[in-house]
Specification:
The protein is of the alpha+beta class. Helices cover 41% and strands 10% of the residues.
């Protein structure tokens, strides 16, 4: 009588049988004898997070002659990465970034290696190599690491490997983002010096905290003069998705998590927008009514009145704005950071968030205005909160100080 197969794990996790209690997160395997009589190892599908008894019950209940597909001994990282990429349903721009990371960095390092031979020690060495590479920005290294982890985890979940070599491996160190915070004088100097047809754009950055693509996409339908609100739900994109033509798209960077956000319009910004529309009447433009999981070509179109136009009767795009408007203005004003670099338009967003947080506006309110979660706000802009001890420290100290003696106690 054939011996009954028994499930097991080959990982070194300390608590293999209590995965839901913070222990092992690997799949269960068993030895399989194929039709040719060769003995090989097979992985039980979807067995991550179950106990040994549960995995054994799954194995015992399998129909006779039906078994999970055994792990492929010759499957390379490059082959599985291509399969993984073909199944992505993210935005096209995100998939393009994945493809670039795989083609330019991951495949040269891991492509020829068999998936089952990649070990944790090799992964740890690779992480150290990325950290030591001075030509590789730490944010870029973090992006490669995230893609690598997704591919490896997908291989584990599909039974292609028996253990995850990235499990509990710390990723590349990412230092705190260094941002430039403009002074109020600098913000208004930029506004005064900016070319007149585009003057409200930098003010949208430092007065509302919108991203650059969102500022360029402001149309008449998002300006509520009665409630003094700017409703942000649109960008100007010039990517492979749009065939490299500036296009208005009803989609935020954080979609589909967030589809719209409302920001108060200060009186001075409302005046600047009104003056701009009087001098430069808005013009009709096509707008893509984007829907989640749909390609831009398949989405319906609408019509809006756009405020900002480039010199060739096209929508204003980032490249023209940065090279022909933003950088010349900053050079003329002599505005540079400590390293001598020109601040970016995104630093206007940092300035808005910094000003709000350091003046006591609640984090959840600022997060709603700028379209981030509170957790993202704290992790991304933690360096902007360092002055809170000076701003609110005295008040916080007064809350826990010894109470003053009451008159009744003194009389007693």
């Amino acid at each position: 009588m054939a011996r009954k197969p028994t499930v097991y794990k080959r990982c070194d996790c300390s608590d293999q049988n209590r995965p839901k209690k913070g222990g092992c997160g690997h799949s269960w395997s068993y030895n399989l004898t194929n039709a040719e009589g060769n003995r090989t190892r097979a992985t039980i599908p979807e067995s991550v997070g179950i106990t040994q008894a549960q995995a054994q019950a799954v194995l015992d209940n399998m129909a006779s002659g039906v078994a999970p597909e055994p792990a492929e001994a010759s499957l390379t990282f490059k082959e599985w990465a291509a399969d993984w990429l073909s199944r992505r349903r993210a935005k096209e721009g995100t998939v393009v970034n994945y493809e670039v990371s795989i083609r330019l960095h991951l495949n040269p390092r891991w492509g020829s290696k068999r998936l089952r031979t990649i070990k944790r020690a090799q992964v740890e060495v690779w992480v150290q190599e990325m950290e030591a590479n001075k030509n590789l920005a730490n944010r870029t290294a973090e992006g490669h690491w995230k893609v690598f982890k997704m591919i490896i985890r997908d291989a584990l979940q599909n039974g292609r490997i028996a253990a995850n070599p990235t499990y509990e491996v710390p990723g590349p160190y990412v230092s705190a983002t260094e941002s430039y915070v403009f002074t109020p004088d600098e913000c208004w100097a930029i506004y005064d010096e900016f070319p007149e047809p585009y003057r409200p754009i930098p003010m949208l950055g430092f007065a509302c905290g919108v991203r650059q693509a969102e500022a360029l996409a402001v149309c008449t339908d998002v300006i509520d003069t009665d409630r003094r609100l700017l409703t942000v739900h649109r960008q100007v994109l010039k990517t492979k998705e749009t065939r490299h033509k500036p296009t208005l798209i009803d989609r935020l960077k954080t979609s589909p998590r967030l589809t719209t956000k409302d920001v108060p319009i200060p009186p001075h910004l409302q005046e600047a927008l009104n003056e701009h529309m009087n001098r430069h009447p808005p013009r009709a433009a096509q707008n893509v009514l984007w829907q989640h999981k749909q390609k831009i070509d398949d989405c319906q179109r609408g019509s809006v009145q756009a405020l900002f136009w480039g010199p060739h009767n096209t929508l204003l795009c980032k490249n023209h704005f940065n090279e022909c408007l933003w950088k010349p203005t900053l050079r003329k004003l002599g505005i540079k950071d400590e390293k001598g670099n020109l601040p970016t338009f995104h630093d206007l967003r940092h300035t808005f968030i910094s000003t709000c947080l350091q003046n006591g506006i609640p984090e959840h309110t600022v997060a709603a205005w700028v379209g981030d979660s509170v957790e993202m706000l704290r992790s991304t802009y933690s360096h902007l909160l360092k002055d809170h001890a000076d701003t609110h420290g005295a008040f916080a100290a007064s809350l826990t100080s010894r109470p003053e003696p009451s008159p009744m106690r003194d009389a007693a």
